[in-house]
Amino acid sequence: METALIRVENVSKVFKKEVVLDDISVSFEKGKIHGIIGRNGSGKTVLFKCICGFVPTSSGTITVNNQIIGKDTDIPDDIGIIIETPGFLPNYSGYKNLKMLAGIRNEIGKAEIREAMTTVGLDWKSKKTVKKYSLGMRQRLGIAQAIMDNPKILILDEPMNGLDKKGVAEMREVLKGLREKGKMIILASHNSEDIKELCDCVYEMDGGKLEQKK
Fold it and tell me: For 1-78+152-214, CATH number?
């Protein structure tokens, strides 16, 4: 039975002669949290953007949910994403931001938005505008946005950014709960404790190469 929801095959990405991804092949299986570690500039975020269809590969193929990115689909379905700082409209509340985003695809309603905000520890009834949010609250809202459509796949680039110790502990429990529901999560984190506590398998990105750590 096919358990790999994402297959990356011989993928390279070159920007102006700089090789950012160098012949990467890896499969990510459902029901697991896959950790990717590596210093800034090692290529983690570019790999995530290629998987999500935001950046085209220079060579190789990426298959998500049995669809080849750039051939069968431009942007994969059933995927929740945090890449870099989540962008929201500053003069609206968190709930209103998510409601507007949900309205674009019109696939979920108020109940799913409320549940996502509650899951990450935000009060959906609050009228506080996002510009008054702390960095940690913005990050929680970004996680709520990623999970509100109940996607099979989550791509999370430094999801704990800005969270205090309590917030990090809470989000770890959220991610563990999502794994128990069969979600597949790819997580990049600078925090070795996140990687150690959460991840079923760990890969290291260095100089555009990706290697699984034993």
Answer: 3.40.50.300
